Predict the 3D structure of the following.
Amino acid sequence: MTLNTDYRTKTCGELRLEDAGREVTLVGWVQRVRKMGGMTFIDLRDRYGITQLVLSEGDKDFELANTLGREWVLQATGKVMERSSKNSNIPTGDIEIIVDRLNVLNKSLTPPFTIEENTDGGDDLRMKYRYLDLRRASVRRNLELRHRMTILIRNFLDSQKFIEVETPFLIGSTPEGARDFVVPSRMNPGQFYALPQSPQTLKQLLMVAGFDRYFQIVKCFRDEDLRADRQPEFTQVDCEMSFVNQDDIINMFEEMARYLFREVRGVELPKLRQMPWAEAMRLYGSDKPDLRFGMEFVELKDLFAKYPGFGVFDEAKYIGGICAKGCASYTRKQLDQLTDFVKRPQIGAKGMVYARVQDDGSVKSSVDKFYSQEALAELKTAMGAEAGDLILILSGEDTMKTRKQLCELRLEMGNQLGLRDKDKFECLWIIDFPLFEWSDEEQRLMSTHHPFTMPNPDDIPLLDSDPAKVRAKAYDFVCNGVELGGGSLRIHNPELQAKMFEVLGFTPEKAQAQFGFLMNAFKYGAPPHAGLAYGLDRWVSIMAGLDSIRDCIAFPKNNSGRDVMLDAPAPLDDVQLDELQLKVDLKQE
Ligand code: ASP
């Protein structure tokens, strides 16, 4: 690395015992100052590390050293010396700098929280002063990892002849299932751009243009409710390929995943399994199952149907159980807590039934009065439960909803039992998604992925008769219960694309107005094509073991979509509104 020698000759992270005796100049921020007897020790920090500076009483700048505050910017010149008491916790811990000259380059206000690994600053404060938060090594390391991963990704895709093409942000609506963020146009009063939810249609047009293999590390904008793994703007590694089938594309992006895991974590991924969506829902109640642990669902409706008497089970459409190994010792209090957990509004179960397998093999359950030991013994066998195990059961009217509730319970048990180790990685592909899903909100079928997804050719006849049964040529990459990416084969035939819009409830006029450009393009020799997008923020979070994607984003937004540092969003002033010819008249709730 070339340093600007006007300011410094070395960084705060590079000096070692071999450098003893050298004259050096360092710059950095004051991490802390300690006074001991007639000596003052300063920890000087930059991006590369921390180096200890020492001044003694009588030194020219000793007085100055005693006036320094945290986070002041310093330049220090002096000689590298071996330390008498070494610090093996930091790479520069064998040496210190005996300072000749100290130069304050800038003062600092006392920061509102400590710039330490375990800072005393709460989330809001750290976000308001994110530039100070970013000085903390743990946050910086996440951004360094992100940088490294983007380099690896670019290298991999370049080696496979992908070409990175930028696509515009000021476009029209791109349906990915969220709301659009919109931008008013001054030159076209009363009209709005929509920011891309993804470059989906544009990358497909690049295939029509013959680019063959495209990628882009690109921001996508989706106005949806936020969670730990969602931000209103996030980054995708967006890819598209021509003349490929599903296996080709899965192999390519599995190879990329393998390369990233190898380079970043030293982990060798095995050949990944491909699990049909229906199986994932049946066994785990999720299209992104966490396979770091088993605890698969066992469907119990048929079993309990043989022993009527308990109204809740008799009336349920779905009854499913999980077996928590060794948890029969759960106390009543713990079981009540689990019941409260599944009854939370976000989860929505009505209750939970449990059964403990006792040491003698008999079963003690919360529904003992409705079931004979014979029925409970059958339950034990069906669940594969042994002495000491705990069986947890949920039931409900709606199979999918109940499975999702059971999924939450399974994940909670995984957490409680320490089965979700962040240093273990279990990846798989989910395939054969349904092409459509029913939206309660919109009261119509919606695309599970987006309207450009190819139906499974075997199911095309069902498009008219039973569209909910049509499977898609779509696939998601899942790791540790997180969807790290997904994609599909695309429709490249204008008639089939028009049919899709029809099934989705678009009139031909609306389809033409919104997506005419794509259907027209398909009339000019569209190649068969397919693609995938990996979520970069989630990839970095998984690799770094983070709980929230915010921790690997330099300037993230909070849960209300606000940037608390920039105080955005904010009202427009009248001049801007006039230029846009807009009047704000908020509808009353
Ligand atoms: N555009 C899709 C998405 O953002 C990914 C793809 O189908 O390539 O999820």
Observations:
- The chain is about 30% helix and 25% strand.
- Residues 352 and 394 are 5 Å apart (CA to CA).
- The longest strand covers residues 23-36.
